[in-house]
Design goal:
The chain is an alpha/beta fold. The chain has 11 helices and 19 strands. The chain is globular and about 80 Å long. The two termini are 25 Å apart. Pfam families: CBS, NTP_transferase.
C-alpha cells in the first residue's frame, strides 16, 4: 500500500485549484476526499477536474462539485490478486481501501498490485508417482510432466504458485526423476528455487516430508500433489492456517453422490422412511495441505506414512487440525477422462 496516501487527503470544501495541486504534487493522479473525520466521501482525478472545467465550473469552486462520490473501493482484507482483478475490471489505476465502517485506511495503486510480495514459505510438490492409470502416456514420462495445454502440468502448478509470490520449491521424485530434474534444473529459468528430494522407495504422501532438509524456513509449508490442476488462491489457505492458529490444515472439496434409486431406511424389518433418489454431500481430501514446522519435523525418518494417517495421528494428539473448503476450480488428473477434461478446461482458467 502506498505510503503517500495521507498526503492525498482533502475535504469536500477544498477548492478545485488546490485539489489540482495535490494531484500534481503527489503524481498519483488522484486526491481522496474525506468528511466526518475519516469517512471517504469521494475521490477526484485529473479526468474529473477536466470534465468539470468543460462543463463550466470555476477553479475556485469546491471540489465536491466535481468529485466522484461513489468510487469503487476495496476492503483492507482483499488480497493482492483480488485488488488486481478489481482494478482490471474497473479500469482503475488506484483503489481507496476502507474498513467495515467506511473509514479510509489506505490506497492501493495498480503498480503495487502488479508487484507480488515474495513469500518464503516452502512449497513441497509430490511428483514421484507412477501414474499407472494414465498408461501408456506415463510409460516414459512422470505424470506431472504430461502436458496440459502447452506446458507440463507441474510447470503450470509452479507458475501459479509463483503468481502469489512463492518461490521456494521442493519437489519429491521417484519415477523417472531425471525427466523432471533435467527440465526444471535449479528453477532459475522459471524465477524460482527448486530443491529435489528423491525417494529411493515410495514413502507415501507424508513420509516424504522426512526427507526435507533441516534448514527449511521456519514457516508453514504448503504441500500439494503434483497432478492437480487448480486456480485456487494459495495465499488464502495460508492466511487461514495462520489466522486460525492451525497446526495442520487440509484443503477439502464438496463432493456429491447421487443415488438413482429410492433409499429405504429402517429398523430391522420395519421401514421407517423412503428417500427418493437422495443426494449425499461430503467433504473429500483435495490433496493440498498447510503444515506447521513442528509437524514437519515430527515425521519419522524414512518410514511410510500417508497424509490422512498423519492428520489422524495429530488429531488424536490434540493438535489443532482444520479443514479449508476450496470452491475454485480443482481437478485431480488421475484417469484418462480427467486428462481429457483438463485439456479442455486449461484455456478458461487464466493460469500462466
Amino acid at each position: 500500500m502506498t505510503s503517500k496516501w495521507k498526503n492525498l487527503i482533502i475535504s469536500p470544501q477544498t477548492s478545485i485549484r488546490d485539489a489540482m495541486e495535490v494531484i500534481d504534487r503527489e503524481a498519483l493522479r488522484v486526491a481522496l476526499v474525506i468528511a466526518d473525520g475519516d469517512k471517504l466521501a469521494g475521490i477526484v482525478t485529473d479526468g474529473d477536474i477536466r470534465r468539470g472545467i468543460l462543463s463550466g465550473v470555476d477553479l475556485s469552486d469546491q471540489v465536491e462539485k466535481v468529485m466522484n462520490s461513489s468510487p469503487i473501493v476495496a476492503s483492507e482484507h482483499n488480497t493482492s490478486s483480488e485488488l488486481k482483478e478489481i482494478m482490471r475490471n474497473s479500469s482503475s489505476l488506484s483503489l481507496p481501501i476502507v474498513d467495515e465502517r467506511g473509514s479510509l485506511v489506505g490506497l492501493k495503486t495498480l503498480h503495487e498490485a502488479l508487484e507480488v510480495e515474495k513469500k518464503d514459505n516452502p512449497i513441497f510438490i509430490m511428483a514421484g508417482g507412477f501414474g499407472t492409470r494414465l498408461r501408456p502416456l506415463t510409460d516414459n514420462c512422470p505424470k506431472p510432466m504430461l502436458k496440459v495445454g502447452d506446458k507440463p502440468m507441474l510447470e503450470t502448478l509452479i507458475r501459479h504458485f509463483k503468481s502469489f509470490g512463492f518461490y521456494n520449491f521442493y519437489i519429491s521424485t521417484h519415477y523417472l526423476p531425471e525427466v523432471i530434474t533435467e527440465y526444471f534444473k535449479s528453477g532459475e529459468e522459471f524465477g524460482v528455487n527448486i530443491t529435489y528430494v528423491n525417494e529411493e522407495e515410495p514413502l507415501g504422501t507424508a513420509g516424504a516430508l522426512s526427507l526435507l532438509p533441516d534448514n527449511l524456513p521456519n514457516k508453514p509449508l504448503i504441500m500439494i500433489n503434483g497432478d492437480i490442476l487448480t486456480n485456487m488462491n494459495f495465499t488464502k489457505v495460508l492466511d487461514f492456517h495462520e489466522s486460525q492458529k492451525s497446526d495442520a490444515t487440509m484443503c477439502v472439496r464438496d463432493y456429491e453422490i447421487k443415488v438413482p434409486f429410492g433409499v429405504i431406511e429402517g429398523d430391522g424389518h420395519v421401514i421407517t422412511d423412503i428417500v427418493e433418489k437422495p443426494t449425499y454431500r461430503y467433504f473429500v481430501n483435495a490433496g493440498i495441505y498447510v503444515i506447521s514446522p513442528d509437524i514437519v519435523r515430527s515425521v519419522p525418518k524414512n518410514q511410510y506414512l500417508d497424509m490422512p494417517s498423519l492428520f489422524q495421528k495429530k488429531t488424536e494428539d490434540s493438535y489443532r487440525v482444520l479443514k479449508f473448503p476450496i470452491h475454485e476450480y480443482w481437478l485431480d488428473i488421475g484417469r484418462h477422462d480427467d486428462f481429457k477434461r483438463a485439456q479442455n478446461d486449461i484455456h478458461d482458467l487464466g493460469l500462466f
